[in-house]
Amino acid sequence: MSSWTLPHATATMGDIKENTTAAQWITEEETMGWDGRFVAKSDIKQEVRNLWDKQKAYGADDYFTVEKHEVFGSNHALAVARRSVDAKVKEVFAVVVLTNYRDGELLTKDIQESGGPMGMPVTKKFLAMLSDTDDNFAIAWRKCCDELRARNQWLRGKLVDGAHIEMETGIHYHFGEGDDISEKFTYKKIGRIDCVALSSGGLGRLPRSWRKKIVAVNDERFNYEGYSL
Predict the structure, then answer these.
(1) Structural domain boundaries, residue 174
(2) What phi and psi, each to the nearest 5 degrees, are found at residue 33?
(3) 172 and 149 in one domain?
(4) Which of 90, 97, 208 shows the shortest CA–CA distance to 148?
């Protein structure tokens, strides 16, 4: 798959922090390279769509249309079709758009699947719309997304207070000695917050990426059968 870009700022691999929303890590000093515009909060999804939909390809007569748009928190996944002037689809590829909204200003940064963006649990229908590709980054992104979707589906109803969790690796905290979490621990649910009891007392909030590392809940193991459409 070829990599096509629009004449607005796009992210590099170094800009993307895995499983972290833009709002969690962007600072005033890190806004360079982000596109910004003042919009109503209710218009965010349409503004993200407009980054690609009906836009002309840079240096060509072709144009783009957004065929499917899925939202995960402040992050968006677009299935984008490149079309010729007679509207025939040449290819369909994925674009990840990070957003941050504050004080009425929407900041966006996008990266195509061939650039190695963060994985998101997009639907099977989304993945099925994408054109075949031999790009290793795009293939890896699609596999990552499919596994995230399958893991999230498997986890439904399992993460209840007191569940016994096993992960691929432990969690390192910087709170103090004895606060690191081993591969196996008891899950605590405080409202909508994922927590774990710390050996030093109190509760530690589990990091955002912890669910992707779960291999078993109450001794029931996650079995991913592999990427296939």
Answers:
(1) 164-219
(2) 95, -10
(3) no
(4) 208
pTM above 0.85, yes or no: no
Residue identified by tokens 């992210």 is 11
Q: Are residues 18 and 58 in the same domain?
A: yes
The DSSP code for 212 is G
pLDDT of 115 higher than 60: yes
Closest CA to 119 of 229, 211, 1: 211
Instruction: Report whether 66 contacts 53 (CB < 8 A).
Output: yes
Q: What is the DSSP string of 104-140?
A: TEEEEEEEEGGG--------HHHHHHSPP---HHHHH
- 3 in a structural domain: no
Q: Is 208 exposed, middle or buried (0-12, 13-18, 19+ CB in 10 A)?
A: middle
Note the pLDDT tens digit of each residue in 169-211. 887 765 555 567 788 889 998 888 999 877 777 788 888 788 8
Read off the pLDDT of each residue in 152-161 and give the average, rounded to a whole number.
93
Q: Are residues 79 and 118 in the same domain?
A: yes
> Is there a contact between 74 and 100 (Cβ–Cβ < 8 Å)?
yes
Same domain, 113 and 168: no
- Pair 61, 170 in one domain: no
The reply to whether 52 and 121 lie within a common domain is: yes
CB 108 within 8 A of CB 48: yes
Q: Is 151 exposed, middle or buried (0-12, 13-18, 19+ CB in 10 A)?
A: middle
Q: How many domains, the chain?
A: 2
